[in-house]
Fold this protein.
Amino acid sequence: MIVDDDPGTIRVLAEILKEVGKIHFTTKGVDALALAQTALPDLILLDVEMPDLDGFVVCEQLKRDPHFRDVPIMFVTSHDDMEMESRALTSGAIDFIHKPPHPMVVKARVMNYLALKHQTERLKMLSMVDGLTGIANRRAFDEALKIEWRRAYRNEYPLSLLMLDVDYFKRYNDHYGHQAGDDCLRALGRVFSDTVKRPGEMVARYGGEEFVVLLPNCPLDEACILGEMLCAGVRKLDIAHHSSDASQVVTVSIGASCMQPRHEQRSNTADCCERPRNALDLLADADHALYQAKNLGRNRVARCT
């Protein structure tokens, strides 16, 4: 993302970085704060002097937001004194480039900082993996839900969620032992991750014997079809569960919910629950649908109604 009140500088920087990635830009500091929320940039090039908010204020406000704390910010300015550069670094910037920008220097530094950010993200992801099943953990899911909610709002597409619970899992642990219970959860995690494969989709262990599947740009009907596939995949494992009232093998119950955030509420909400208005509502509806699946006899998918 490029923020500069000089359109000429924006054009120069955009030309330098056109092969690096998608470019977003604005000429105002206030607009930069709003644009960052929708563009979710991997790196920001920021001017110091702008007519509304100066670059230092913009940088400080972005760094106070947890979503942009790790996003590298590079100041690009005509100032060349040490005091200004020191202030830029103190405000949270990672670098300071003088105008006019040299193409080779700008591109090299941007590439280096993007590589560093991606490496940091990979390390962060390691802390978001469930130690037992090897899939995403609750923390990773919570972060992904926030991001996908904002993306769905921006693009006005449906966001679906599946909440899964292993049927009578306490009885399974009591009958077969906790080691067998752990092996069972690992096997289910493999089935889920092998089935949920589309870009952007995520399967995570939500806690205990509960799992969740996040499905961006997926209507409710398609989410329920995937849910049926997951149910079938678990049954196909043929893991004996003689203490279950639902089946003689391990099964799962699934609740499905869907929402489509809109900039202006419209009457056409087909294939989505009308009630959800935020991510917590989406979770609550999936949990309610899961409760319905259990009441209907378990080993099935129930949808938000």
Observations:
- The two ends are 41 Å apart (CA to CA).
- The chain has two domains: 2-126, 138-303.
- The beta strands are 2-3, 25-26, 44-46, 73-77, 95-98, 159-166, 202-207, 210-216, 252-259, 301-303.
